[in-house]
Amino acid sequence: MENCTTNDTLQNGALLFQLIFYIPVLSLGIPLNMIAFWVFCCKIKRWTETRVYMINLMVADSFLLFALPFIIYFTMYDHPMDKLCATIRSIYLTNMPMSILIITLIAIDRYIAIKFPLKAKTLRSPLKSASICAFLWIMLIIYSYLRPKFQEKKEHFCFKKQSIQPNYSSLFSIIFLYFIPLGIVIFCSVEVINCLKKKTTTSPHETKLIQKAIHIVSVNLCVFVICFSPFYITLLVRFAVDVAGACSLLSKVRSSIHICACLANSNCCFDAFCYYFAAKEFQEFPSLFPTCISLRSKTNKSQESQSPTDQVMTPTRCTALQVSRTTGPLRF
């Protein structure tokens, strides 16, 4: 059995909720992303790993906002699978995973900066960050283009999976484009928080910066989990329903997917807070950078004359000061 009857009342209620929910998302997301583009492309001149990641995140969010009106229309009406649908599907299937992967990259980047401050100078650079982002864009664009070709059952309507034939390419996306990044983000965030809690501070100002960094990491981790997890969990449930052929659950699962997709897509508005904290990095903490660089330079010059204990302890203050650099853009 390839198709099941659906509960139209439940489905229409979910679509109405989706329409109402996306109005403020579009109203807030578009101006916030325009302001963010102006700040990061025009006001900020210094290139850092943070600026590279933020610009890529803004591009992904902007394309997602562009696709939302089409998605609303396609899900409310039975729009056929045509070239317009294929284009919007490719945009959507590229930019949401890209947002997740960029957030994962930022988590890894900040983990390296705090846990391995001496190696960070070698491992991290704006050029390396840009190269990684470009590679991910290319791979996701190729995947979004090839993914429909792996589907054995061709759907008739855009963004509406009518059959209950399991889609194994969807299972691949769920695991490799969310749950694995989720594990990485959780690990990096927990490690960063634990590391920050163990830092010894030399002034009340440093203590305040560390507390602020811990708060930002914790809040952004919660936002990441709350926004994306319900959507991908319901997609996983939909795959299980298709495998089991449980038609009685199909209407409820479809409605849940529509509602959870609203929460996932609203992340393009929550990213505005990420832009805010990233912009503050360039305003509040530049005076700390020379001190950190100076300390690291002195450390490198005096490593041969120091004891092993001194070599371990010397960069501690530099690492604590690096917290200020990571406080702003800590986006998890």
Structure in words:
The protein is an all-alpha fold. The protein has one domain (8-327): Up-down Bundle (Rhopdopsin 7-helix transmembrane proteins). The chain contains 12 helices and no strands. α1 packs parallel to α8, α2 (49-76) runs antiparallel to α3 (83-115) and α10 runs antiparallel to α12. The radius of gyration is 23 Å and the shape is elongated.
Topology (elements, then pairings):
Elements: H1 8-43, H2 49-76, H3 83-115, H4 117-123, H5 126-146, H6 168-197, H7 204-244, H8 247-265, H9 267-284, H10 288-302, H11 308-313, H12 316-327
Helix pairs in contact: 1-2, 1-8, 1-9, 2-3, 2-5, 2-9, 3-4, 3-5, 3-6, 3-12, 6-7, 7-8, 7-12, 10-12
Q: Structural class of the secondary elements?
A: mainly alpha
Q: What best-fitting shape do the alpha-carbon axes yield?
A: elongated
Number of helices: 12
**Average pLDDT value?**
78
Tell me the total number of β-strands.
Answer: 0
Could you write a compact summary of the structure shown?
The protein is mostly helical and 332 residues long. The chain is built from 12 helices and no strands.
Observed structural traits:
mainly alpha; 332 residues; disordered C terminus; single chain; 12 helices; Rhopdopsin 7-helix transmembrane proteins
